């Protein structure tokens, strides 16, 4: 079942086309990566989904219904440019923002308490936002985004300001919310994070979709028949069944990056085993970052 459907959506700002007849679907219970270079149209699409602006053409469906003001409370949005009140206390601010999303005060207070406990930040509840570090404020913004338990969560660069420990904490929370039934749209320039947590991706550039699909399928479609190999007690200068792209020797071990036709992999493995002790043989698929760069540079 699709939670979100974008159908032939276009958006213009004067003579500039931010989106052009864009189509995409986001399945329920998935973490969906919305990718693209600066100016690709990602923010324009996110603003339309949040009803901050409207499309010039096309339509958007949420849970199969045309997007309407009643859907606002079913969406949680973490913008890249944060929007908290610097002179308002943490607890009061979170309760206030939760109530704006339709929660009763008692329910909102209970949820705020649970999240403060979960993040081990109860000691911050009476501090004003301007007293917090950027990373601390980010945690409060994250709570404000998810506290009303929306079915659709949109995170735009959610790891900005976090150290590695807190980045992993938020990644875990995003996965947990997905497992509890939320659907996530995740927009970032950090391709390594996309590979770690996203189920599917779409890549847009200059307002148009240029690539989409499950991550494994996308990477497989760009396979270059390259293999990572590690051998021990081997001396290799050439191979009959493969081209050596890279070679590193460390002590008694040699690491190789090879290119070979799929039809030759069995013969290649036998050749390597005859050359020394084969410790590793695995296909190297391109990273999302490599795919991102190559597709954007094509246009």
The helix tally amounts to 9
Span between N and C termini?
A: 33 Å
**Uncertain segments:** none
CATH fold descriptor of the largest domain: Rossmann fold
Helix content: 25-40%
Please compute the radius of gyration using only Cα atoms. Answer: 24 Å
Q: Largest sheet, order of strands side by side?
A: 6-7-8-3-9-10
Query: Helices and strands: which structural class?
Result: alpha/beta
Molecular shape: globular
User: What is the CATH level 1 assignment of the largest domain?
Assistant: Alpha Beta
Overall mean pLDDT stands at: 92
User: Can you write the helix and strand succession as a string?
Assistant: EEEHEEEHHHEHEHEEHEEEHEH
The CATH H-level homologous superfamily of the largest domain: P-loop containing nucleotide triphosphate hydrolases
Largest sheet: 6 strands, mixed
Strand content: 25-35%
What's the architecture of the largest domain, going by CATH?
A: 3-Layer(aba) Sandwich
| Number of beta-strand segments | 14
What's the domain count?
2
